[in-house]
Write a structure and sequence with these properties.
Length: 208
């Protein structure tokens, strides 16, 4: 399954001890490899993808990133969605800055877009058809168009956290979302180019 949630509850939450929160999820190891290679060279919607030097296939997850977490059901049978939201928020606060992305294999009691809306509302983060005040579709483009890796720095109110939620039956192929560690991308950029951006800054123009 795709990542199921990123959240915490803004309204009243039954207090959980620090020990209880920290034991709600376990490290599930590395992400499984795709069932078949995901071709990106020549894929519509990705700039420069027609170039011969463009990677032919999407690479597998980098070792150690993202952090993959699975819920621990034993001992937490009486927890409701509010409780799990608090546990998820604790993982985000502790690990998100280090790993850049967290993949929750599932979150108990999270099943519908309405559940996700409650969770995202509690984080006060932006997540394009508006489904609720905090949930939007990832894209309304035709499925053959790809969403290239990007940051949200074009807006002054950039989201600090983004959640991806797969609703319904998840296909074996198609609909992949590329998650990129832009910190590593920056490390590989020409240092002279980075210095020029530091000196001159950047100006974004957004067209809707």
């Amino acid at each position: 399954m795709l990542a199921r949630a990123i959240a915490s509850s803004a309204h009243w939450v039954r207090p959980l001890s620090t020990a209880a929160v920290s034991s709600c999820f376990r490290n599930a190891g590395a992400l499984p490899e795709p069932m078949r290679p995901i071709r990106i060279r020549g894929r519509s919607g990705i700039p420069m993808s027609e170039e011969k030097t463009f990677p032919e296939y999407m690479s597998c997850a980098t070792p150690g990133a993202p952090l993959v977490l699975s819920p621990v059901a034993e001992g937490h049978e009486d927890m409701d969605l509010d409780d799990w939201a608090k546990a998820v928020k604790a993982e985000l606060d502790h690990n998100l800055a280090k790993y850049g992305a967290i993949y929750f294999t599932s979150v108990p009691e999270l099943h519908t877009p309405q559940d996700l809306a409650m969770l995202m509302r509690s984080l006060k983060s932006m997540t394009s058809t508006k489904l609720s005040d905090v949930v939007r579709t990832a894209s309304d483009e035709p499925p053959e168009y790809a969403i290239e890796p990007h940051s949200e720095y074009h807006t002054a109110g950039l989201p600090h956290k983004i959640a991806l939620f797969a609703h319904g039956q998840v296909p074996d192929y198609g609909g992949e979302w590329m998650v990129v560690d832009t910190r590593r991308v920056m490390e590989e950029l020409d240092k002279a180019v980075v210095r020029k951006f530091d000196e001159l800054g950047a100006c974004y123009k957004v067209f809707y």
